[in-house]
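Query form — protein TIR domain-containing protein

QUESTION: What is the three-dimensional structure of this chain?
INPUT:
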Amino acid sequence: MEKPMEPCYEVFLSFRGPDTRHDITDILYHSLIDAGIRAYRDDEELRIGEEIGPELLQAIKQSKILIPIFSKQYAASKWCLMELVQMVECKEKWGQKIMPIFFDIEPSEVRNQTTTYGKAIQSYIDKQLYTNETIENWKAALKKVGELKGWELKERGKGEFTREVVQKVLIELKKNYLAVSDFLVEMDDHVDRIMELIGEYSAQTKIVGIHGMGGVGKTTLAKIVYNKLLSHSTKHYNLSNFLEKMDDQVDRIMEVIGERTTNSSICCSLSNIRDTKIESLQNQLISDVLGKKRQTINDINEGKRVIKDLLSSKKVILLLDDVDQKTKLDALVGMGKCWFGSGSKVIITTRNKEVLKNVELKHELTGMDFDHSLQLFSRHAFRSDHPPAEYVPLSKKAVKVCGHLPLALEIVGSFLAGKDRKFWETTLEKLEIIPDENVEEKLNISINALQPHAKEIFLDICCFFIGFDVKIVSHMWKSCGFLPDYYLDVLQQMSLIKITNCDRLWMHDLLRDIGRHFICRIGTFRPKKQSRVWDHEQANGILIEKRGTENIEAVCLKFDHQSRHFYKKEEFASLSNLRFLQVDCGDLDMKNVQHFSLTNWFQRNLSNLPKLRYLSWHKFVQHCPSTKQFQKNPLVLPNLRYLSWHEFPIFFQLTSFSLMKIVILDLSHSQITNDWEGWNHLKMAKNLKVLNLTKCSNLRKTPNVSTHENLEQLILQGCKELVQVDRSIGKLKQLVFLNLEGCSKLQRLPDEMEGLEALTELLLDMTSITKIPKWKGMKKLETLSASSCGLLSKCNLVGCSTSLLYLCLSGTRISELSIGNFGSLIELNLSRSSIRELPNLIETMKNLRVLRISGTILEKLPSTLGMLEKLEEIEAYDCRYLRGEIPSEIGRLSFLRILRLTKTGISDIPKLPESMTNLYLSHNQQMRCPDLSNLSNLRYLTLDLKYRIPSHLAPSLNWIGGLRKLESLSLCCHSLVTLPSDFNLLLKLRKLELFVNNLECLPKLPQNLSYFHFVGCGLMEKSINLSYLEKLSGLHIYNCRQLMEIQGLQHLKNLRGLRLVRLLSLAKLLDLTGLKKLQGLHIEDCPKVVEVRGQLESLDILYLNHCETLEKLPNPLTFKHIKVLMINGCWKLKEIQGLKYSENLIFLQVRDLPILEKLPDLTNANELKRLELGDCPNLIEIRGRLESLERLLIKSCGSLRKFPEPSSFKKLEKMAIAECERLEEILKSEEYRDLKKVRIPLARFEMSLDYLISAVGIIYSRWRV
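ANSWER: The structure tokens for TIR domain-containing protein are given below.
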């Protein structure tokens, strides 16, 4: 089937003329057109011939959404059935969405071909006018579409029904279109300006404030800058992150250099500042710094002191977003630079410039330029980058009244989408009256137009539910009589909210504030009308002062831990219409409060809240006595729908609550057990839909859930003691989500799970299950994930769900997999499993987009892979038994973007499709070098051809210069002698790695390189010039034995990492003057280098190894910021002067310096954690107070006779001395007797050299794009 052109229609309607032409079809068609949706309808009665005509075929192919309207006689039309088959084919091949309407018929009649559908099919069979294959295709199409979720008209009004369909179509179209690019503002110039102000690589502390109107993009800009700084932090000076690849060695290396406890960089981002009290913000910052919760700060001045003490010696990257008061800023950053360690960076965003009064560096962010504004507006108003010709003047006017602000353009564009010209004109006239600076009022026009229930849901989200799981809170709104599915779609379509990929509710902080201001305005003019109170202090005041009214529907409370005020019945008495109550107990302690009973409190004080539907109780009250005496009293909260109580106290009786109407119960992190009395009381919860028992660590068996027939979600994630799932689970016919992830002791799943006919998602990751049974009853299962189940060896999915989209069996023992016909599967992950061959019938997986088989023992790839037309990614690295040729059929995969075939035995690569963007190939034996000249879209290429052949047979790589989109290239080819002359034309190339031992001449490189790694022992040139690589941040050169000079090093102003290894002819003088940003310098096996020149003020790491003639080190001031200093085998080095300035030094290693006589006084090295000295036979003394030293190793320093006094070693934990005769005599004296306690044999002392060489290697390898 030919790939469709870009859609010119958006919706295709398929219908049976006599049934619906003048009914629902006509109403829907005109409603779609009126909403600005390009719809196509065709009357099947007007067609002739036996085949679908080309115009109709093209309309189906081009439409994004396909809507068959099933009526009683739909199947009686061969044309309708032909269209339906075509629609199913388009869905499976190109991903179009089918949204069926069941007009006057049940979905089961379509699915199972009963009643009129069965008769129609039988008549086709009886007349024998069509082949059996044609009829089977019709039946299959009816079955597939009948199983899809759609709309049933039933008794609903056609007007209301049509509005719902149009709304859903708009949402789907918008989602589809905006996925291309959700944010069009050109941020590059602003980012560059902020990075310049903040001094990205500077060792100075900088604080920058970004100010501008709400909705202009301040948070987006700040996050981009923060992430760039964070990226550089993790790559450059936070050493613990450099070592992430070293697994079990990490802790040991970090112990060596002390980075875990001292001088590490802290990264922290605080948002929602506008709605958070100062003390809470201080607590959050302190907790983030410590990496754990500490004693609560209750006094602002105390918080300031603690923050200053914690951060004054640390390098911090801090983002404070949407700061609304200067007092809050002062409480968090105090006196500015002096509160933070050297090199710290602080970013502040605010709408109020006055907040930044004492901030020296400021940047104002204004709106977008006109062209980008019009483009963004058009995307939301017309789902196009440009407005239609007749709407150009009005669109330009809209951009003007929106003040070029991205948020306003998005909201107003969405509000006007699909409306007629008159509506546009009226709306824009209203907006013109509003001053440009009053953004909130402009956006209010959209909010005010909401229907009552949509507005209620919007205001609930503004006040309470940002970040919540939409699937869960929707149940609460349903219980209030709202229609959340419909109204959430409305809010999305109007761009007032977004639902993230993780199903979380999100909205812009300005929209949140507008919603809250709306509530506050009502409360200001009519205090008794305020409906929601989200501020803890205001809520506390309302209750204590008894100012509550019947209009208050939602309240957030936080108990006062100082006064220990626990609200009383009369304080709740006036809140008779309360439907939402959120309580934060914090660290409330009732230890000294006599006769307090939590059970009694609930039954007394909440009995007057009959309309309460949502109760969230955060933590439990400490030292609260157990009591059961009130169990016989009337149950409280008879209308409760949502109860969330983390760390539910085991003494508290669930019987205090009425659970008759409960829909969601969340008892995560509680100590409940399988014999908990509350399970019996829970049986009355007939309407329960969500049961969350995450990390209930004492739960060994799930309760009997047979009475919860309506349960839709069961979450048991992280219940590490769980060993049994009760067989009653099979009776949950409505269960759609089951999470058993991390139940590490669970070995078996009950056979009764086959009865979970509605289940769509099953998570079994990191359990101990040994097999997945043959569950034929799970017909709707879409996600099955069982990764890292190390004991799982059997999985038979034949006959199971044909709806499966995602199947993950990575890290299992499965060697054979039978999966049947999974035509809907999108991703298959078999990595690190024991699979020996790909599943049978894999060619039927027509929708498969991602195939992961890395680390398996597969021996070949089947040619049937070429039939998977939608495949986008094949990940097959580290398949060491995979040999032979890649099937040529892969070249047919026109959507293939990513192919990973490193560390395999593949010997030949066929011509690959032009769609490729990422290609990774390597082979330790001979592999024919592929011709990749047709891959014009390639961005990342790894080509590793390690085998050696005569140079005259070396492969030609002349095609590389034509890959103009290439951003990263790693090339290993030891037989390569030259590179193409047009290599420097790869202007987008940022990262280049060349492992070419026989390369004779280094060509001119692309000038935009950020990272260059070069290994070339065959290089014949004695000098190379790199001065033109001004953007270079990482440079590594190895094994260039003839190379005497690297010209232009001093011009590489952005260089942060430099590594020169085994350059046997490198000149005597290495001039690094001007490299102000250099953070890491590694020189090894460069025997002719005599002097390293330059004042490297940003240097963190200096590693000099076996530079035998080195006599002079860089300027002593270079040592001021160094954390790790390792000097080994520099035989002519007499002194290390810079050590007296090394106040940030953490680790010092000096070995094999035969003429070194003394070290400078190390007293200033007050951060030094580890000192290793070895093979320095003339070293006489060590001076200084080493008060932070924890590890000391001295070996083969026979002349050492002066040693710091014992009182210097306040923190010494381990000391090893060997082959130091004179020092041994000193240590025998009485004054050093305390050091004997930490003395250990040399064999027990961790030898850090090998680890640190590896660590430094990893550090330098990270200075890249």
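ADDITIONAL NOTE: The domain at 11-178 is CATH 3.40.50.10140 (Rossmann fold).
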